[in-house]
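Problem 12. The chain below contains 236 residues. Write out its predicted structure in token notation.
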Amino acid sequence: MSSKTFPSLKTERELLGSRVRYIIGIDEVGRGALAGPVAVGVALLDSWSSNFNLDDWPAALADSKLMTAKSRGVTAPLVAEWVTAFQVGYATAEEIDAQGIVSSLVLAATRGLEQLMSEFRDPNSLVTDGTVVLLDGSHNWLAGHTGAFAVHHQPKADRDCVSVAAAALLAKVSRDAWMQQLAAQHPRYGFEGHKGYGAASHLAAIREFGPSTEHRTTWLSRILPDSSELDFYNHG
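Solution.
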């Protein structure tokens, strides 16, 4: 397997070597979309659990952007079974318009973390036994929002780190399913194909029909410079 394509446990093992029991991989999906929510995957690994094999992750797991839709669909249930626990938090298009994308990423991540902790069998041990959040990216956009959990951020962690690749894959599959549901509600925009991103067909539909209630309307004037073409009274 090429290290350029497949993740490893190198970073996780370095962090676990500092007497940390838990790793929580976090990554976002949908940040650059014009429509639909942003999703943040939260995947927890318990290195002390006798029921968990840290080395036995599904072989097909990789950066979700490099996987086909078919491979993601097959691999995601295996990843969900392999990780100790996971959640996917969301922030809606309306919240993105109101708060901006970075604040919405934080909102989605904290929702995912809170839900994970509320359903975890022993949430107190996450604090007492040590937890590190492993975050994809070149800066710590979760600073001050993870409570007692330290954050280690790493560029390309969704490519190189198993826990983050798992979080990204689960978030991607979950958000894609959400966009499939929105496609049925707003059939004129083709959400089932481009998942809310700026495909030419998507931009053409916005020009023809105006934005739907699921579009991030504050973004559209930047993407479509002649905003007079758009009816911002939410169609579809």
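Discussion. Residues 131 and 149 are 6 Å apart (CA to CA). Students who got a different answer should revisit the alignment rule from Section 12.3.
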